[in-house]
Amino acid sequence: MIASGIILSELRTNAHLTKEKIMTNKITGVDGPITGWLDGHTYLIGLMAYPIRHSMSPTMHNNAFAKLGLNYAYLCFEIGNDKLEGAVNAIRTLDMRGSNVSMPNKKEVIKYLDKLSPASKMCDAVNTIVNDNGVLTGYTTDGIGFVQALKDEGIEIRIKL
């Protein structure tokens, strides 16, 4: 399952890419990142965390972008709290489409963003930053991805209030 909030954001703006189309287009036979599609129109998406060099996220996301025909490149940036403000400013400066955020930055990043989704406000955490023309909005997609994975397996969730 593709859980990136940035991919989900792009789906909202690219109506021809439906959830059903993505879920049925499995990536097979790929041992590493697909390369060769980068050009002057490629948007950069990052993952900011420390440590992060072990992550398989670039392989997963770059293959998904290629499969969906999105002209994006996904890279990891080893960023701890001490470099976080500069890294978030770089999202604007470099006109990056956004970034995923992992530990230890999920809470600390909030003070550098322009807006937060209701879920991020409630959780006091951000794992996805989307850059819309210089306005950085923080989202948390962990819960959405978890609940969707359960639904995909036929597991219903009942909330008691």
Structure report:
With 161 residues, this protein is α/β, with parallel strands linked by helices. It has a single domain (2-10, 42-153), classed as Leucine Dehydrogenase, chain A, domain 1 (Rossmann fold, 3-Layer(aba) Sandwich). It has six helices and six strands, in the order ααβαβαββαββα. A six-stranded mixed beta sheet has the order 2-1-3-5-6-4, sandwiched between helices. Strand 1 (43-49), helix 3 and strand 2 (72-78) form a beta-alpha-beta unit. The longest helix has 12 residues, at 57-68. Residues 22-27 have low confidence and may be disordered. GO terms for molecular function: shikimate 3-dehydrogenase (NADP+) activity. Pfam families: Shikimate_dh_N.
Report the sheet with the most strands, covering strand number, pairing sense and barrel closure. Answer: 6 strands, mixed
- What's the helix count? 6
Classified in CATH, the superfamily is Leucine Dehydrogenase, chain A, domain 1
Strand percent estimate: 15-25%
Structural class: alpha/beta
The overall number of domains is: 1
SSE string, helices as H and strands as E: HHEHEHEEHEEH
Uncertain regions: pLDDT < 50 for 5+ in a row?
A: 22-27
Approximately how much helix is present in the residues? 25-40%
Mean pLDDT across every amino acid position = 82
Strand order of the largest sheet: 2-1-3-5-6-4
User: What's the end-to-end separation, in Å?
Assistant: 29 Å
Shape: globular
The tally of beta strands, per DSSP, is 6
* CATH level-two architecture: 3-Layer(aba) Sandwich
Which value, in Å, is the CA radius of gyration? 16 Å
The name of the CATH topology is Rossmann fold
CATH domain class name: Alpha Beta
